[in-house]
Amino acid sequence: MHRCHWASADDALMCAYHDTEWGVPLHDDNALFEFLCLEGAQAGLSWRTVLAKRDNYRKAFHGFEIARVAAMKDRELESLLLDPGIIRNRLKVTATRDNAIAAQQVIAECGSLGAYLWSFVDGKPLRNRWKDRSEVPASTPLSDRMSKELKKRGFRFVGTTICYSLMQATGMINDHLTGCFRHKECAGMH
């Protein structure tokens, strides 16, 4: 069974993520918010590092329930800076609450975070047909636009590379290589 290059067979965590989550279209607001925050936490680090800490992030940030995260007090965020189970970067920790507040504003205006984020791809996944990992971009004009729009709305840690990774992870873009067994499976999902 062939997988994308980054899902090494000797890394069970990355394989499981690749085989069951990456590229699967997500529409649930809290799930999308989780990925938005985790992709931002990854900035400057490896995805594996963040993935290994995901359960701790879920505990620290109330299961990524947007309303609960938006209501977090400064003292609660300060205590998270002592938690070795998450990445203890003050800017990234406070950005999670700021992003929840921005997400609430998007939901009030657009009906859901999912509807807003998926509007960047006109509500349906883009299906790339990359044969080699060297073809897969780190960002595109689409991720540039998403980044710019999210920043205008007050989101933080949403640079163009983070936005592209978010779109890949949540199935807005199918970037499984054509030789990967998941390419065809994800292509049939909406």
UniProtKB/TrEMBL annotation:
Keywords of the record: DNA damage, DNA repair, Hydrolase, Metal-binding, Zinc
Cross-referenced InterPro entries: Adenine_glyco, DNA-3mA_glycosylase, DNA_glycosylase, Tag
Keyword Zinc assigned: yes
Binding site for Zn(2+): C4, H18, H176, C180
Keyword set includes Protein transport: no
NCBIfam families per the UniProt record, alphabetical: tag
Name the record gives this protein: DNA-3-methyladenine glycosylase I
Organism field: Dorcoceras hygrometricum
Source lineage: Eukaryota, Viridiplantae, Streptophyta, Embryophyta, Tracheophyta
